[in-house]
Specification:
Response regulator transcription factor, alpha/beta, six-stranded parallel beta sheet, Sig_transdc_resp-reg_receiver, 2 domains, phosphoprotein, 203 residues, 10 helices, 6 strands, Arc Repressor Mutant, subunit A
Length: 203
């Protein structure tokens, strides 16, 4: 059973979120409060697995101390006014928009309780690339590596890439390893994602 503490200044929103959470047999609302004053004390006493917070327009007033084990999931009106990286560094494990559906909220609560990070797609778009992923990284890729990266984007495996470029699979592995290192990634999916963001791959 996942123990959830609901926080929302609007009583209707608070009641709605509490009712929504209660519809899932895997979730249990242990308390619902109107503000986060003394939140750390509430967490200490109630020991929730997830703190579900509707921030509305009060984003700047929100402070979370990471020393407590509960995962925090926030719902905001808009993403433009929030510091996503700061929130994640501060212990927030999920950021959703008001437009998020009820089923998505339930899924997000369960996901953050398992230790996952849940971000609205628009929040991901607002995250800056890693500092190491810059124009210098693009310039560091050789023309051959860019070719291989584009083929990764097409879903080709090492064998197919080797055949297409008329090189050995060992050489393909070497290129892929070099791409990973230069783009600071560890998987093909991450490499393709970065390639798309840097304009190297057109989907």
């Amino acid at each position: 059973m996942i123990r959830v503490l609901v926080i929302a200044s609007n009583p209707l929103v608070r009641a709605g979120l509490s009712a929504l959470v209660s519809t899932n047999p895997n979730l249990m609302v242990i308390a619902s409060v109107s503000n986060w004053d003394g939140l750390t004390k509430e967490v200490e006493q109630l020991q929730p697995d997830v703190v579900l917070v509707d921030l509305g327009n009060n984003v700047q007033e929100f402070v979370w101390e990471q020393q407590y084990p509960a995962a925090i999931l926030v719902i905001v009106d808009e993403l433009d006014s929030i510091n996503i990286q700061g929130m994640l560094r501060g212990g927030v494990r999920g950021i959703l928009l008001q437009s998020t559906t009820e089923s998505e909220i339930i899924a997000a609560v369960e996901a953050v309780a398992l230790g996952l990070v849940v971000l609205h797609p628009d929040a991901i778009e607002n995250l800056p690339l890693k500092a190491s992923i810059s124009e210098t990284a693009v310039q560091a890729l050789t023309p051959r590596e860019i070719e291989v990266l584009k083929m990764l984007g097409s879903g080709l495996g090492n064998k197919a890439i080797a055949k297409s470029l008329q090189i050995s699979e060992h050489t393909v592995k070497f290129h892929v390893s070099s791409i990973f290192q230069k783009l600071s990634v560890s998987t093909r999916t991450e490499a393709v994602t970065v390639g798309v963001r840097l304009g190297l791959i057109l989907l």
